[in-house]
Amino acid sequence: MSTPLNSADLTNLARRMPKAELHLHLEGSLEPEMLFALAERNGIALRFGSVDEVRAAYEFDDLQSFLDIYYEGASALVTQRDFHDLTMAYLHRAAADNVVHVEPFFDPQTHTARGVAFDTVLGGIVSALREGEQTLGITWRLIMCFLRDLSAEEALATLEQALPYRDVITGVGLDSAEVGNPPEKFATVFEQALAHGFLTVSHAGEEGSADDVRRTLDVLHVSRIDHGVHALDDAQVVARLVRERIPLTVCPLSNVKLKVFSAMEEHNLREMLDAGLVATVNSDDPAYFGGYVGDNYAAVIKALDVTRDELEALALNSFEASFLSPAQKAARSDDVRTFFAR
Ligand code: ADE
Ligand code: ZN
Q1: What ligand has the least distance to the C-alpha of 257?
Q2: Is 1 inside any structural domain?
Q3: What's the whole-model pTM score?
Q4: Atom 1 in ligand 1: residue holding the nearest Cα
Q5: Chain segment 277-334, per-residue pLDDT in tens
Q6: 151 CA to middle of ligand 1, Å?
Q7: Strand order in the sheet with 99-102
Q8: Three-state SS at 170
Q9: Is residue 341 part of a domain?
Q10: Which 3 state secondary structure label does DSSP give 227?
Q11: How many domains does the chain have?
Q12: Ligand 2 centroid from CA 24, angstroms
């Protein structure tokens, strides 16, 4: 019999275990220090006087109050070098938590609407992902998100822009304001994306309901659901997610910061694990929500008594849920089992 692990041991284990991160908005990894550096480099005036002032503004009532400041921050990103530096900084933070595979999101419309070219955004991100693979050993698949508060026509135009880059963009997703922008609005866009060979994911059941999750599965044919915490309000939706092994990319610190749950103790990750869902732990927008993936694990270990076996299951889930090939998934899963066998 091994001695039981305390919360500090488990947190340490969670940080060191090999894992994938599947729900991370690159624009949401823009730390205030980099925001100021980029604003200065690009001659952009900020309404904040200091890094502390920026951090103090990161108090949110709901998703929209966060999105407002998130889009404001993204306006400091202008050149290809900016997108490269942003992505590289994220990869270094991920590497520190032993993240070995990433599937980050980017929001091209946030930038093209300001006159920043699609190629500038993508070029900077991809050059950093390639550098990170070389220097940090982090493999990657990239996911382009459509902003669901914009029109389906604008999403279609963005899909057109992505077509020449099928080799570096694996999937398309849907983010931004969920309520009032249902999956049906993007049925045609996702149909076309699938026909062009993109995989699909979507935020659903973050502020939306279990029925939004169900319709996202039916209408958008997604491989996984981003957040999905409200799926647990409907036993039939849960049963379907379990049966079809549709993963949920859960972001605990985000959910508490955006008041989806009143406290981490109220988060339903424990119910997800007990139900046999393919749940994963991710950071969403770490610069805004108080931490990277290791911090998210630390928070759920503390509040929800996540066990050693559950950490192993979460690490295995992160690879099962990924867009790696079956052989790559098997190899990464072996790494997890080897790590926990030690
Ligand atoms: N864009 C960035 N973070 C998001 C979130 N948590 N939900 C919806 N859209 C987002
Ligand atoms: Zn998100």
Answers
A1: 1
A2: no
A3: 0.98
A4: 176
A5: 999 999 999 999 999 999 999 999 999 999 999 999 999 999 999 999 999 999 999 9
A6: 17
A7: 19-21, 99-102, 139-140
A8: strand
A9: no
A10: strand
A11: 1
A12: 6
Nearest to 28 by CA among 206, 287, 296: 287
Q: Are 152 and 184 in contact (CB under 8 A)?
A: no
In a domain, 270, yes or no: yes
Query: The domain containing residue 111 runs over which residues?
Result: 7-336
**Chain Cα centroid distance, residue 53:** 26
Paired strand residues for 204 = 227
Pocket of ligand 1 (CB under 6 A): 25, 28, 63, 70, 175-176, 203, 206, 254, 284-285
Which class for 192: exposed (0-12), middle (13-18), buried (19 or more C-beta within 10 A)? Answer: middle
Contact 225, 280 (CB under 8 A): no
Burial of 152 from C-beta contacts in 10 A (0-12 / 13-18 / 19+) = middle
Residue with CA closest to ligand 1 atom 10: 176
What separation in Å is there between the alpha carbon of 299 and the centre of ligand 2?
18
Q: Which long-range contacts (CB under 8 A, 24 or more apart) does 122-125 make?
A: 122/165, 122/168, 122/169, 123/80, 123/83, 124/79, 124/80, 124/81, 124/82, 124/83, 124/84, 124/85, 124/86, 124/87, 125/26, 125/83, 125/84, 125/86, 125/87
Which residues pair with residue 144 across a beta bridge? 106, 172
- Residue 38 tokens read as 């980029």
Yes or no: say if 311 and 10 are a contact pair by the CB < 8 Å rule. Answer: yes
Residue (of 163, 139, 165, 151) closest to 113 by Cα position:
151
pLDDT in tens, 6-46: 999 999 999 999 999 999 999 999 999 999 999 999 999 99
In a domain, 323, yes or no: yes
User: Domain containing 174 — which CATH number?
Assistant: 3.20.20.140
Ligand nearest to the CA of 65: 1
